[in-house]
Amino acid sequence: MADPQTDAHPAPRTAGVDIKRRVVHGNQCLVVSFPRSFRDDEWAQRFGELQTYLDTPLAPPILRRRLVFSLINCRWIDPLPLLSALIESVRADSNSWRVLYRLPPPDEGPATQDASTYQRSPNRLLLFLAREGFLAELLRCGIRVVIGSQLLDEEVIAEYTRLPARPSYADAHFIPVTLLDVPEQERSPSFSADTVDSLLGGVSLPLRSKCSAPERKQLLYTLRAVLQEFLHNVQEHAYPQPEPRPVALYVRFRQGGVGLTPVAKAACERDLQEEQKHCPRLDRVWLDARAGCLEVFFLDRGIGIVQSYATAQRQGNASIDANKRSNPQGNRIKRC
Asked: What CATH number is attached to the domain comprising 239?
């Protein structure tokens, strides 16, 4: 006999993302399995269906809800899907879902000759998640993570930053994956400026070997303006409700085409070809002509300026600065 709960709320079918739902004795388990390569286009096309599903109130008698993100078969994930998963995890946790991540255990590392973008070994993925702050944010937010039979803790994260693997983006670390709960503008008018001050504290040191002092000054000025504008926009109109108001961001250094050795150039070209297929915002010509850049990713779960304006009109308060803009779908920008 069909389960009426399952029939009433069929799980969304997402391209590349496998979603299965079971309801047993009033307890629901939703398992979201990431594909082997989770790129921007797959996330942008269909991941919104998962968001809608998680936001839909379930009819009783659901007693407990469990959400499992499985990365067992995943070997690559782009930053925007990663930030989105982090936001959904915290939102689900605040809505009484018990959230769990399952990651593959490390192995001896990829074969020496394996220079492919998508490797069989999980080490490069685990190295990325550990070095770039994603695992630390899950731990900080109280999200349970199981790797093989091992429960994630700070010692495991430190161990994974030394895994035998070569990252696709060398020397990328700049501002790690960060999740923030953004207060309303009226409650904390200095939030955006204070937060950016904290995020940029000490980041000039990694840039000293990459650009001159005047370039560094201009770069940090631009980065400060971009991050502060993003956070201010979220404060101003992204979330009509008082809470939760999550945003996630990540900034990495990106090697350009200038100054690469022939071997490094070939490896970079291979990865860029894959990126061009799946990440429409990539500007190859712009990147090839530079020694490097900072790549900024930020994401919120709110509404855009048009919907915010319409909501304000319905509430009798249309005093919104129309010059502001926000992209709740996520942004990826570069600054040289």
From this structure: 3.30.565
Measured between alpha carbons, how far is 227 from 205 in angstroms, rounded to an integer?
Answer: 19
Report d(CA 304, CA 320) in Å as an integer. 12
- Run of H or E including 19: strand 18-24
pLDDT digits (tens, 9 = 90+) for 69-90: 999 999 999 999 999 999 999 9
Are 231 and 193 contained in the same domain?
yes
Shared domain for 55 and 92, answered yes or no, is yes
The pTM for the full model equals 0.83
pLDDT tens digit sequence for 177-228:
999 999 998 899 999 999 999 999 878 888 888 888 898 899 999 999 999 9
161: left (phi over 0), alpha (psi -120 to 50) or beta: alpha
Residue 91's contacts (CB-CB under 8 Å, 6 or more residues apart) are 54, 244, 246, 301
Please say whether the beta carbons of 311 and 303 come within 8 A: yes
Residue type, 204: S
Please choose, from the candidates 226, 244, 238, 125, the residue with its C-alpha nearest in 3D space to the C-alpha of residue 175: 226
> Which residues span the domain enclosing 57?
1-167
Distance CA 104, CA 133 (A): 18
Domain boundary among 150, 167, 184: 167
